[in-house]
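Question:
Write out your own:
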Amino acid sequence: MLNQLPADQGDIVDKLITIFAERGGVHYGEGVSQTEHALQSAVHVDQQNCSDALVCAALLHDVGHLLHEDDIYHAEQGIDAIHQDVGANFLEEYFGPAVSEPVRMHVDAKRYLCAVEPGYFDLLSDASVLSLKLQGGVMNEDEVQAFESSPHLEAALILRRADEAAKVPGLETPGFETYADRLRGLLKRA
């Protein structure tokens, strides 16, 4: 993981902007870059009039990919890089669970929706199908029940649907800096 991350909250938003500017141009098996995907996800959630926390969770849901020091697409290598946990663990240090938990749950939300919603699997991109296999596949009944007990269930499902929709090459979105004030407003207070 990147070792030059800020020690205090005041610098984290600027650091996130820098991480996306420096590393977000990487494509990950889709027709869009990590930054394009993040911004499209945030726009989709924002258009649903969701909370700032959920909009920011959508923006940052794949930050775990960017925190790895390598620039490889892990799924193509047959590796589940558990980016949802890497990202959520990082984000929970600076933001509350309204941001970190939907990030942590967005992979399992895909597994869940494939289990409970007929036709959802057919909506997945090839890259999402590949990663689904590495991430545990479709949930079984026990996993579905456990997932449904989370207080962040609805947020995770909204984020997941935005994640799948946010793969449109060339779609114009506001820049990452547009979300800086919202991110700063969500920072935990020391």
Notes: Residues 95 and 187 are 5 Å apart (CA to CA). DSSP finds eleven helices and no strands in the chain. The chain has a mean pLDDT of 89. Residues 97-116 form the longest helix (20 residues).
